[in-house]
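A quick word before the example. In earlier lectures we treated sequence and structure as two separate objects. From today on, think of them as two lines of the same record. Here is histidine kinase written that way.
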Amino acid sequence: MVRLGFIIGFIALLGALLSGLAAYRVHDQELALDRIALARAIDVHASLVQDRLTERELLARVASGLFRAPSVIKPNMLEPLRSAIYAFKTDFVVASWIARLKPNELTAAQAAIAGAGFPNPQIRTYDDKPIDLARITLPIDVLMDLEPRSNETKALPGRSYDQDPVRSAMLTRARVEKRSVASDPVPLLRGNGPVGVIVAAPVIPEGATEPAGFVTFSYELASLMLTNDDMSLFSVALRDPRKEGGELVANDQGIVSARMAAADGPAPSATRTVSFGARDWQLSYYAKTNSARRAEQTAIIVAAIGFAITAMVCGLFGYVAYNNLRLSREIQVRIGFERRLTAVIDELNHRVKNILAVIQSIVTRTLRHGSDIDVARELLIGRIHAMSNVVSLLSESQWQGVKLKGLFEARAIPHADRIAVTGPDIAVSARAAQSLSLLFFELASHSDEGLSLVGKHPHITANWTVTGEEPEEIFHFRWEEFNTSEATRRPDSDFGLILLDRVAPEALGGTAKRYFTDVSYVYELTAPMETVVDMTERDRTDKISAPVRPVR
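And the structure line, produced from the sequence above:
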């Protein structure tokens, strides 16, 4: 046992070391795979964002190129562009035409805005304050037309953006650089509107050096950042160009809010730079899951599996040891079985002696003084034959009992083919089989005279039934010889009477009676079922050795 314990301990130690090594390797691999997957996902996202921004900037360039020699004060300036801009992209918030008007064009511009159906044609500041047109000496940028037209957007035409810090800076740069320019993030439509970015493309007539105006497109920031993917591995934030350390983030409803990146907060997993409107924008990516923690959890699972396998191996060795102990016990049981077999052989010898004693009694009472030698010889042969038949049946069943119908075989019962047998084919015990076999022979051997009266038709019935519920079941046997009377039936011998009235009932622990009716001879036997049915030797031993329970 000490050696076995040492082996199990060594296996457990080796298994623990291997499990720890496997967990360490899995931790490193999971961490590396998560980082690679996150980096690839970020690269794909940044590429999609750049493609999206390039398409929007291209739309502004195409729209500005569709203007040939526009009249800045012409109403419905976007009319030729409506079909083109909707066919190209439709996710903009507002597309507008901002004309660069000279002081002498302002009055005509007001008339054009009014003629286009806008409710407030007056030239005013970006915050709807009226402008004194007489004091204007330089060209100003005025919103003349827009798309789509709604109750919210119809009030915007007529506004001048020269004093708007965000839009004025955007238009000035587009006019100077003569290319598409994007603004800083700014609320769209109203002060508390969705945060977005405006891209302005200058419209320069042929032969001119200065733009006649600008075509602008406004986009919500959330759609440009592609932030509404709940299944992504990361969240996206845009570095706020207006504020150092500021970030713009969008929630799952697309609402953009500003926040300050904490110095002690988590650093972004990666940053990517995209170009839009002649400026660079920096995207910060924050992983939604902790790769290190996930790798640790996976490593813990692998270690647990390793420890479980180690425990199974150690348990297997313990099981082998237990089997060895069980084998030793089985050997002891086998020895006990051999002793039991010896006892069974002794019991068999005892039964053989009992059979011999029964045969001796049969011979003595059959060949009593003064009996007819021919009748005695037939009865002796028949009785011994009946005993031999039941012993053969018991030997075939290893003395575990025989089927009751098997006792009515023609080789053991006279005229068995003329006896109508009915009843459940129950197995009776060895002791009951010996008594019933002799009983059936005695009943059949003394019915010769009655048989001669009926020819070949059965006139003897043997039936049995079982009544009651376990363990109070009762066995009922009835033998009836029809067309028989005291005058025609051969009288029973002394041995037969003793067997019918005393030996068989006592062997089965029951009672018996015989009598004549007007048309038949009847023999009835009643006994407890537990003394009739077959039980194995162990069942009999357990039943005999079980303590008697007191009656309640």
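Notice the following. Residues 137 and 538 are 126 Å apart (CA to CA). We will return to this example when we discuss secondary structure assignment.
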